[in-house]
Amino acid sequence: MKFSHTAPIQPLSQLARIEPATVEDLPRLVDLTTALFEIEADFVPDRQVQERGLEAILEHPNRGRIFVARTDYEIMGMVNCQFTISTAMGGFVILLEDVIVHPTFRRQGYGTRLVNYVIDFAKRKDFKRITLLTDKISDESQAFFENLNFQHSHMIPMRLNLAGE
To answer: What is the pLDDT of residues 120-145, one digit of tens each?
Structure first.
């Protein structure tokens, strides 16, 4: 029996699409951010808090966007973009947060596709810069973003936490 030549089978990462999250995605987004905060030293996971924050972004797209990697059945990962204005840059900039891919789907290109989608979005919308914070102790996380051409800054993050007062 002879087989005819057909197009190669696409890997799962090629079948997924990147698109804006919706309010219907909220339970899965909460799952992802909760899992992220379980491994970050600066944050304590709290499903209600994460839901409130994610919902605020989804309800106010002029303040930020959440993009997801998904198929028709599953959300594999997400990224959160907060919009602000930089006087140094003279325009809108993005603070990139919550880059997370579910452990089952890691190392399949979803994280790279999500971040590249944000970069393309930022260029199309004339954002001037994308800034992110990554764990100081996570060499893997730093290498991931360095491979996407993010560079270390001379600035260091400092925080004043007003939520606990």
So the answer is: 999 999 999 999 987 766 788 888 88
CATH number of 12-147: 3.40.630.30
DSSP assignment of 62-115: TTEEEEEEE-SS-EEEEEEEEEEEETTTTEEEEEEEEEEE-GGGTTSSHHHHHH
- The token duo for 59 is 């309800």
H or E segment to which residue 32 belongs: helix 26-39
pLDDT at 1: 36
126: part of which helix (H) or strand (E)?
Answer: none
**What tokens were used for 37?**
């905060």
- State whether residue 155 is helix, strand or coil: coil
